């Protein structure tokens, strides 16, 4: 690391400590580990957005995450938890050295797959208090990311519910067939302007076919397995697809504004025509 980089990190840490000190910033001084949770999450997503944008703004967004780390360390030090940013760095450094014996030791590996197996084995040694391989996967992750993590951990030690692409396709097809069978009991189509997931024209229309949620869960879980076998991150894939839809819908809205058309007045045929036109131009 450059010497001036070390000085820069020290200077930033001193700013955080000053903000937290008596006579510093009232808002910063009131923060706790719990109160900072939403900010850490928001800053993390902003880093991901910068990565998706090709790195534009990445330096600034990483700085915002670093600020959060330093804030948590300052709070811990003040509370007598016994650690500061130096302790965090020491712990992480020791962990990285221990989990990379093929770099810092004499362990031989054939490739990245061996590295992952060794990583999991060494993690189990370190985390003796964990009773399950699944311990440590945050349940607060977005559902697709959580499913991916829950599938990957057992697969790393030899158990994979969908060991091949064909197995994943079979599971996905079976769930889709069950869902198709339920479609005959599906609620009536919603009246325009209503969201059938939250309200409907009649009590009957609000009824969801028995078992539909479980089958949808199977379908999505199988889709995650298929994505994993294809080495596609399902969270990223769905985000890209959703962004494509959102961009196209915004194009429809923009053209409607240009035409002086109220979208609420469009019938199904005109909606389809405008949707197809937006697809051809995006």
Task: Please count the beta strands (DSSP E, at least 2 residues each).
Answer: 0
The number of domains is: 2
What is the CATH level 1 assignment of the largest domain? Answer: Mainly Alpha
Mean pLDDT: 87
Q: What is the helix fraction of residues, given as a range?
A: 55-70%
Describe this protein's structure.
By secondary structure, the chain is an all-alpha fold. The chain folds into two domains: 3-98, Orthogonal Bundle (Helix Hairpins); 143-187 and 200-281, MazG-like (Helix Hairpins), CATH 1.10.287.1080. 65% of the residues lie in helices and 0% in strands. It has twelve helices and no strands.
Reconstruct the topology from this structure.
Elements: H1 3-20, H2 26-30, H3 37-52, H4 58-78, H5 85-98, H6 101-104, H7 112-126, H8 143-156, H9 165-182, H10 212-229, H11 234-259, H12 268-281
Helix pairs in contact: 1-4, 3-4, 8-10, 9-10, 11-12
In short:
The protein has helices at about 5-20, 25-30, 35-50, 60-80, 85-100, 100-105, 110-125, 145-155, 165-180, 210-230, 235-260, 270-280. With about 280 residues, it is mainly alpha-helical.
Please give a handful of descriptors for the protein shown.
single chain, 282 residues, mainly alpha, Helix Hairpins, 2 domains, 0% strand
């Amino acid at each position: 690391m450059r010497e001036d980089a070390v000085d820069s990190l020290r200077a930033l840490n001193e700013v955080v400590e000053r903000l937290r000190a008596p006579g510093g910033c009232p808002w910063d001084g009131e923060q706790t580990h719990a109160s900072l949770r939403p900010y850490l999450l928001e800053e993390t997503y902003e880093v991901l957005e910068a990565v998706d944008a090709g790195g534009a703004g990445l330096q600034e967004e990483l700085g915002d995450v670093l600020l959060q780390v330093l804030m948590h360390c300052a709070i811990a030090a003040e509370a007598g938890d016994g650690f500061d940013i130096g302790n965090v760095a020491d712990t992480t450094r020791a962990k990285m050295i221990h989990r990379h014996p093929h770099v810092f030791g004499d362990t031989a590996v054939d490739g990245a797959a061996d590295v992952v197996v060794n990583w999991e084995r060494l993690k189990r040694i370190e985390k003796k208090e964990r009773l399950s391989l699944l311990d440590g996967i945050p349940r607060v992750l977005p559902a697709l990311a959580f499913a991916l993590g829950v599938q990957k951990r057992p697969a790393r030690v030899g158990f994979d519910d969908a060991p091949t692409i064909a197995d994943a396709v079979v599971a996905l097809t079976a769930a889709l067939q069950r869902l198709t069978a339920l479609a005959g009991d599906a609620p009536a189509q919603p009246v325009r302007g209503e969201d059938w997931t939250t309200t409907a024209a009649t009590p009957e229309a609000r009824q969801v076919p028995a078992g539909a949620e479980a089958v949808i869960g199977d379908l999505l879980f199988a889709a995650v397995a298929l994505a994993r076998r294809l080495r596609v991150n399902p969270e990223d894939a769905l985000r890209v697809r959703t962004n494509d839809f959102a961009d196209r819908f915004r194009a429809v809205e923009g053209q409607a504004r240009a035409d002086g058309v109220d979208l609420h007045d469009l019938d199904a045929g005109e909606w389809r025509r405008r949707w197809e036109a937006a697809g051809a131009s995006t």
